[in-house]
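Researcher: Next entry in the queue.
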Amino acid sequence: MLALGAMVAPTYAAAPNPSASVANAAPNFTPSNAPTGALACNAVPTSNGYGGADVTRSIALRSGPSSACGDVSSSKLYVGQRLGGWCRYKNPSSGYWWYYVSTGGAAPYGWIYEGNISGEETITTPCNDY
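Model: Structure for this entry, 130 residues:
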């Protein structure tokens, strides 16, 4: 029986120490926010449709349909430059449309966000690969 005001220290079961090989191993799960499909950078769709767009902001093409993806090249597009549209993809995370385009039908190819172009409504082919 305990006296009034007496405290009992909690007891905890000691956790076993993981071995070094287990502690340094890669996790065996995929985080829910990991990019998949067209959200993955370096996404290169095979869909090639009609249409095009004009650049409204000097920016580089991206390697995937997300602002988290890197630039395709170090050179930026110039305002007024005409892009050939291959296909479009609506990023489910952001809800924004991204377009896979080429610069005058040639490389570099890459992704551009809808807010950096005009006339993109002519690019209607979905990027079916994703």
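Model: The first strand starts at residue 52 and ends at 55.
Researcher: Noted, moving on.
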